[in-house]
Amino acid sequence: MKHWIKRTLFGFAGLAVVAGSIAGCGGHRHGWGGGDSAEFRTKMVERVGSKLELDASQKQKLTVLAEKLQAQREAMRGAGGAGDPRSQFKALFAGNKLDQAGATRLVDEKTTAVRNGSPEIIAAAADFFDSLNVAQQQKVRDFMDRGGRRWGHRG
Measured between alpha carbons, how far is 58 from 95 in angstroms, rounded to an integer? Predict the structure, then answer.
């Protein structure tokens, strides 16, 4: 396989992993408002902390992970300058033909953002997960097996 194809596929795979992580942590803001990301992070850490019965050290590691994910999300939104991913994507289809150069540029920018932020996220995720005991790790696996649906709600 040509190098650029491998790089593009790896970029899409990395983007999908990060997007899934971000969606899992930032998607369900029901009842929490939508404004302050620090407030949301705090509530998310408390909720996950209570479900996993985390100690103070584990909660701190989860907070670091949440902060890294938020920074990555902001980097992804900011990549390309426009700030609104939907409008950036829609702009590719604005003319009579797909803006292939713009699409390539957008993919490159997002891939670069993922590549630059991923090592910190991976390290924070490993630090958090490795700090969990066997039962807590199993709860995380069970949550992931359910497709990331929230703990204790609708199944």
Answer: 50
How many whole angstroms separate alpha carbon 11 and alpha carbon 140? 26
> CB neighbours (10 Å) of residue 95?
9
User: Which tens digit of pLDDT belongs to each residue from 60-114?
Assistant: 999 999 899 888 888 887 755 555 778 888 888 988 999 999 889 888 888 888 8
C-beta neighbour count of 152 within 10 angstroms: 9
* Nearest 10 degrees: Cα torsion 145, 7, 118, 150: -20
For residue 145, the SS3 value is helix
Distances (CA, A) of 81 to 5, 96, 99, 140: 25, 24, 17, 36
pTM for the whole structure:
0.65
Query: 129 is written with which tokens?
Result: 């997960």
**Count of residues in the chain:** 155
pLDDT digit string (tens) for 8-61? 655 555 555 545 554 454 444 444 444 567 788 888 888 888 888 999 999 999
Residue 31's contacts (CB-CB under 8 Å, 6 or more residues apart) are none
The one-letter code for the residue type at 2 is: K
